[in-house]
Design a protein that fits this description.
Layout: H1 8-23, E1 26-31, H2 37-47, E2 51-56, H3 58-67, E3 81-86, H4 90-103, E4 108-114, E5 117-120, H5 121-129, H6 133-178
Helix pairs in contact: 1-3, 4-5
């Protein structure tokens, strides 16, 4: 079956979406049926610099995903679809979407794609449950510092024991000489 010719404006939209799929760290598909324009604006603001949120026609978004080499999302392109293209921290963007969905039940997270692999809505939720990159790095640094402190204490222990032994021997010698 031959593809229908695509109008120029649709071809431009598909090209833009394809580029966003390719340049994004992750993409989360949502259904926004029932949200007001003001709520959508608030959602875009809540995502900040982590992601851009765009409403797209399913046929165009599906074609763009295919053009970008993304598979496994076809079932998610049903109903009114909006895409959150994540360019920043994936965990923070997932948390922002999850928190907004809790406050506004009309926003439904359908699933997404991360590192070329399709994600279910539950897997997007698991991403949101992770701690942010900064917190994980801080924990790693703290663990490394603690291990270095333990190593330093372990290496200092024989030296301090030798100093205490020398001091005890000197005290014993002084007492022996005085007696």
């Amino acid at each position: 079956m031959a593809d229908k010719p695509v109008r120029t404006d649709k071809a431009t939209a598909v090209a833009e979406l394809t580029e966003q799929f390719r340049s994004s760290t992750a993409t989360v598909l949502t259904e926004f049926r029932g949200l007001t324009v003001a709520q959508l604006k608030a959602l875009r603001r809540s995502l900040g610099g982590q992601a851009t949120y765009a409403v797209a026609k399913n046929t165009l978004a599906k074609r763009a995903a295919t053009d970008a080499g993304i598979t496994g999302l076809d079932d998610l392109f049903t109903g009114p679809t909006a895409l959150a293209f994540v360019s920043g921290d994936v965990v923070e963007a997932a948390k922002g979407l999850r928190d907004f969905a809790k406050a506004h039940p009309f926003l439904v997270i359908k699933g997404g794609i991360f590192e070329g692999k399709p994600l279910s809505a539950a897997e997007v939720g698991k991403l949101a449950d992770l701690e942010s990159r900064e917190v994980l790095l801080a924990k790693l640094a703290g663990a490394m510092k603690a291990n270095l402190s333990k190593a330093a204490a372990t290496l200092q222990a024989p030296l301090s024991q030798a100093v205490r032994l020398a001091a005890a021997l000197q005290n014993k010698r002084e007492r022996g000489e005085a007696a």
